[in-house]
Amino acid sequence: xxxxxxxxxxxxxxxxxxxxxxxxxxxxxxxxxxxxxxxxxxxxxxxxxxxxxxxxxxxxxxxxxxxxxxxxxxxxxxxxxxxxxxxxxxxxxxxxxxxxxxxxxxxxxxxxxxxxxxxxxxxxxxxxxxxxxxxxxxxxxxxxxxxxxxxxxxxxxxxxxxxxxxxxxxxxxxxxxxxxxxxxxxxxxxxxxxxxxxxxxxxxxxxxxxxxxxxxxxxxxxxxxxxxxxxxxxxxxxxxxxxxxxxxxxxxxxxxxxxxxxxxxxxxxxxxxxxx
Length: 276
Prior knowledge:
Layout: H1 9-23, H2 39-50, H3 63-80, H4 82-87, E1 96-100, E2 107-109, E3 114-118, H5 119-122, H6 128-143, H7 146-171, H8 176-196, H9 199-216, H10 221-224, H11 226-233, H12 250-265
Parallel strand pairs: 1-3
Antiparallel strand pairs: 2-3
Helix pairs in contact: 1-8, 2-12, 3-6, 6-9, 7-8, 9-12, 11-12
């Protein structure tokens, strides 16, 4: 970034973003206690990532095979989920998995209980345990009530963003029209930031809930953890997440998953701990 002596719009947006994220601290976050990882644990995971091969292997399967795998995972996770859903106070506990024949390395939750898996990501994953971890993570957003929280944060962020931008324009000597235009732009920026606020906390919680869900379904959490190593390999330089990241960095996620495994294995009822 090029620094200047005056008010830099990019700097202003960063400050506004930081204000928004701080202001929304009480509006979003993890309902359950998530594993905390140390810098040493992140560094250890980072070494594992950096020592990995430059080219990851591909595990190409037919679309029909992918659909059969996803149907089996959906049935297995749905059968094991009711106890966790009841505990998390979630009513709809049926997991619906959709397959999309696209090369993009991605998966997403597009409804309360619907998860879409793209072939590009599936080609990167070796075992059903890894695929189940991704599905479990996306369903974890439903278990953690994250979709509703993001909608609320977007609304709050829009209000704060409009007030910040409009006030800054007025303070700079802008007339009513300029202030209104700035406020309108601020609403859009604030809504976007609000929708992403504390998403790292939500992502960490979704990972934890995935671990509990997989354990209840009898999947191997150690094998499943390879998925976070695969994703970390695609961004080896990203070691630790920053304020404006929407996801925890790969090594952070790997270290947290290892701690989640220990927590789940030591849990007699295979249920996470509520935040006080």
